[in-house]
Amino acid sequence: MSLIEAPRTPTRGRRTGGINWEKWGWIYMRASGVVLVVLIFGHLLVNMFLGEGVKAIDFAFVGGKLSDPFWQVWDGLMLWLALIHGANGMRTIVNDYATNPKVRTVLLAGIAVSTIILIALGTLVITTFDPCPAGADPALLASFCEAL
Question: Which residues cross the membrane (predicted)?
Answer without folding.
Answer: 27-50, 70-94, 106-129
